[in-house]
Amino acid sequence: MHRSAGKKCRRGRGAVAGEDAGTGKVGVLVYIVYLGHLPSTDADASEPGGFSAVEFAHHGLLNQVLDDGSSASDRILRSYKRSLNGFAAKLSEEEAHKLSGMNGVVSVFPSKTLRPLTTRSWDFLGFPQTPKEELQLEGDVIVGMLDTGVWPDSPSFSDEGFGPPPSRWKGTCHNFTCNNKIIGARSYDLTGSSSESSPLDDAGHGSHTASTVAGMAVANVSFYGLAAGTARGAVPGARLAIYKVCQGEGCSDADILAGFDDAIADGVDVISFSIGSSSPSDYFSDAQAIGSFHAMRRGVLTSAAAGNSGLDGGYVCNVAPWMLSVAASSIDRQFIDKIVLGNGQTIAGSSINTFATITNATLAFPANGSCDPESLVGGTYSYKGKIVLCPPQEGHLNDGSGPLLAGAAGAILVTRAPDVAFTLPLPGLMVTQDNFDQIMAYVNSTSNPVGTIDRTETTTNTQAPVPASFSSPGPNLITTGILKPDLSAPGVDIIASWSPLSSPSDNPNDTRKVQYNIISGTSMACPHASGAAAYVKSFHRDWSPAMIMSALITTATPMDTPGNSNATALKYGAGQLNPTKAHDPGLVYDALEGDYVAMLCAAGYTQKQLALITGSNTTACANSSTTTSPGLAASGGDLNYPTMAASVEPWSNFTVAFPRTVTNVGAAAAVVYDSNVEAADELVVDVSPTRLEFSAQNQKVSFTVIVSGVAMAEGEVRSAAVVWSSNEHEVRSPVVVYAATDDDDDAQQRA
Ligand SMILES: *[C@@H]1O[C@H](CO)[C@@H](O)[C@H](O)[C@H]1NC(C)=O
Ligand SMILES: *[C@@H]1O[C@H](CO)[C@@H](O)[C@H](O)[C@H]1NC(C)=O
Ligand SMILES: *[C@@H]1O[C@H](CO)[C@@H](O)[C@H](O)[C@H]1NC(C)=O
Ligand SMILES: *[C@@H]1O[C@H](CO)[C@@H](O)[C@H](O)[C@H]1NC(C)=O
Ligand SMILES: *[C@@H]1O[C@H](CO)[C@@H](O)[C@H](O)[C@H]1NC(C)=O
Ligand SMILES: *[C@@H]1O[C@H](CO)[C@@H](O)[C@H](O)[C@H]1NC(C)=O
Ligand SMILES: *[C@@H]1O[C@H](CO)[C@@H](O)[C@H](O)[C@H]1NC(C)=O
Ligand SMILES: *[C@@H]1O[C@H](CO)[C@@H](O)[C@H](O)[C@H]1NC(C)=O
Ligand SMILES: *[C@@H]1O[C@H](CO)[C@@H](O)[C@H](O)[C@H]1NC(C)=O
């Protein structure tokens, strides 16, 4: 998210299936045809070039359904053949339908277009700068960024002191000069009009996220003096591999899947994915769920943004249990800006305004109440030199572009997200509707209304961390028994690297060029978690993605949302990321491919589909439901997940059981953990056994948590936590029970 607070996963409109698949042919769209695992017989599978057996098979399959005289070569845009099996092709609806019924096809779905959804933030998390001697350890870790590209000349991406890339690295650099920091870079534009593209970041977003993950420490960074300090990523010693899957219009599923296909085969360790939609899709009609599943099979964790549709009634996206879903919260630094009215009244708002002070400028309310460029420019009244007051307008982007074009001195805009400071293209501030009304009352009361706007000031937010207004909340609409988002990380007013090809306000008429910019979104929270995952991976090369996720989730710090206890756990999951603790979690909840497959079986995916996805015909769905809670198994609650969630019928008493197994990853060979329940009064949480004894490292011990309670109202949420404590570690799992509302059901049908 950048300029339009709370819109969808990043900015602008939501993704509509095929809305800009752009084939130029009526009724023909770009579809993804997903075929599951790669046949192991294909010797070429991991070769980037060449026409392999897998491609022949794709062409053969497609040719079987084409009857308009065209051939598969005219239609296939890309074969996915390095890490997963499938292709993107231009198809009619009828052709897509035919394909979906064919042998060997898991799913066929239109390629949607998604949106790409410092420094201080790490200090706020209590995460120290990496000492020199540990940089080398990080040098073996490679993070794949699926984003808008990168601006390589930023000092954050200097490779000073770096050795050559790890020898296992198979990635390449296309139309881009790599160094020993950025060791791979490619760009994809399968559904776009131009075949030429470069991994250079023309949006800023990709440079921002990449530097948050692995930027070198750069001293004396600021945005025109604001947020001054040392900018750094979580793992400054780690390598970056750039997969530019977002072009100007957005990020197509076809490009996203290409990015995953390459990143996994190239040998990345962690994938950072700050892209999403306003609500999740079914797992095998969702490029990122498919891509991250194949990543998980190869031991690669995908960390993703939870979405920015919290103010629009949307729900958390990127919910697959094999990926980490990251919510956004505030840090202790806040930016405020003030207007002093002619009557002496001071009104505070938020914005990043580093322009010179404007003194006693006339306040002007637009004649027709609209700040659209058409209303402000070319009329009889001139807004030149005035401060324009912009009321909210349904469906209009109130971003100051109208006042800027009209030559206004400044602007006052209404915001729904007063917790976020946006960078405006001219002096101004964003205020709540209440404050806007106060300004209007003053304007109406005098014949000569004036105001003075000063530069933005920095203050301390003593309540932080608080979940960001725009951060998409749960419940998880796809698998109700898996708590999403998983955890929260800083995503409000974060300073990090930027691209000079994009203005800091995103407005092309804003001529400023900056190396570092302050922006907000779950897009900014995600790379904090990706970086923390890379940090954990640098200590534990052999940990599975589930072990790393567990380490991050069980060591997160619980957060309070003052005065809003209902929203809390569904908004931020386990709490705020704590990278320092995460590298030594004591116990982890592990899960491997077979565990996810059992969950998918229980959730109703067919044995035939799952056999294609896993490439194993021993996948036996019938046996998966071995626990005492069959309903829970179908909803995902049986998966060995580090949190426990259940959706229950409203107005009925309930009992749910969560079978779990923990693995001892602490240093001590013999260790005892005792359970502690932090329960809300309204839940009864019974843990059995209450003591776990380990005599060896990597030993696994199982237990069951039984949660019961009396009837809840629709929409009510209750939470508690199960904490396993030893002398050295605390392993905390939130427990969340919620009563579904009709809204959830509606949303689920839409999803
Ligand atoms: C290489 O990148 C430049 C922009 O840096 C772009 O204009 C050009 O089209 C790209 N070339 C190819 C072959 O993709
Ligand atoms: C940071 O900037 C200040 C003022 O411009 C300067 O005095 C100081 O030496 C700089 N520090 C570093 C480490 O460059
Ligand atoms: C702005 O206007 C106020 C009220 O009329 C006046 O007190 C103040 O001195 C003016 N400021 C400047 C810098 O002219
Ligand atoms: C930038 O300015 C040009 C003309 O000066 C105008 O046509 C265009 O709409 C402006 N762009 C934005 C985003 O305001
Ligand atoms: C101020 O006047 C405008 C129209 O001139 C009106 O729409 C608005 O309700 C008034 N606001 C206040 C707070 O008085
Ligand atoms: C599993 O698949 C392989 C190859 O497709 C086949 O040879 C084998 O007979 C199958 N096994 C079973 C139990 O169906
Ligand atoms: C499923 O159950 C059958 C019979 O109970 C058993 O033979 C088989 O091994 C089981 N399969 C799995 C994958 O557990
Ligand atoms: C739910 O539990 C409460 C407390 O145990 C009990 O009083 C009530 O009758 C139960 N309601 C139903 C519908 O079983
Ligand atoms: C939580 O939600 C329920 C149902 O909507 C409502 O009755 C209750 O008052 C809410 N509690 C709080 C603290 O907001």
TrEMBL record:
<keyword id="KW-0732">Signal</keyword>
<dbReference type="InterPro" id="IPR010259">
    <property type="entry name" value="S8pro/Inhibitor_I9"/>
</dbReference>
<dbReference type="InterPro" id="IPR023828">
    <property type="entry name" value="Peptidase_S8_Ser-AS"/>
</dbReference>
<dbReference type="GO" id="GO:0004252">
    <property type="term" value="F:serine-type endopeptidase activity"/>
</dbReference>
<dbReference type="InterPro" id="IPR015500">
    <property type="entry name" value="Peptidase_S8_subtilisin-rel"/>
</dbReference>
<comment type="similarity">
    <text>Belongs to the peptidase S8 family.</text>
</comment>
<protein>
    <recommendedName>
        <fullName>Cucumisin</fullName>
    </recommendedName>
</protein>
<dbReference type="GO" id="GO:0006508">
    <property type="term" value="P:proteolysis"/>
</dbReference>
<feature type="active site" description="Charge relay system">
    <location>
        <position position="205"/>
    </location>
</feature>
<dbReference type="InterPro" id="IPR034197">
    <property type="entry name" value="Peptidases_S8_3"/>
</dbReference>
<dbReference type="InterPro" id="IPR045051">
    <property type="entry name" value="SBT"/>
</dbReference>
<feature type="active site" description="Charge relay system">
    <location>
        <position position="523"/>
    </location>
</feature>
<dbReference type="InterPro" id="IPR037045">
    <property type="entry name" value="S8pro/Inhibitor_I9_sf"/>
</dbReference>
<feature type="active site" description="Charge relay system">
    <location>
        <position position="147"/>
    </location>
</feature>
<dbReference type="Pfam" id="PF00082">
    <property type="entry name" value="Peptidase_S8"/>
</dbReference>
<keyword id="KW-0720">Serine protease</keyword>
<dbReference type="Pfam" id="PF17766">
    <property type="entry name" value="fn3_6"/>
</dbReference>
<dbReference type="InterPro" id="IPR041469">
    <property type="entry name" value="Subtilisin-like_FN3"/>
</dbReference>
<feature type="domain" description="Subtilisin-like protease fibronectin type-III">
    <location>
        <begin position="638"/>
        <end position="737"/>
    </location>
</feature>
<dbReference type="GO" id="GO:0005576">
    <property type="term" value="C:extracellular region"/>
</dbReference>
<feature type="domain" description="Peptidase S8/S53">
    <location>
        <begin position="140"/>
        <end position="575"/>
    </location>
</feature>
<keyword id="KW-0645">Protease</keyword>
<feature type="domain" description="Inhibitor I9">
    <location>
        <begin position="30"/>
        <end position="115"/>
    </location>
</feature>
<keyword id="KW-0378">Hydrolase</keyword>
<dbReference type="Pfam" id="PF05922">
    <property type="entry name" value="Inhibitor_I9"/>
</dbReference>
<dbReference type="InterPro" id="IPR000209">
    <property type="entry name" value="Peptidase_S8/S53_dom"/>
</dbReference>
<dbReference type="InterPro" id="IPR036852">
    <property type="entry name" value="Peptidase_S8/S53_dom_sf"/>
</dbReference>
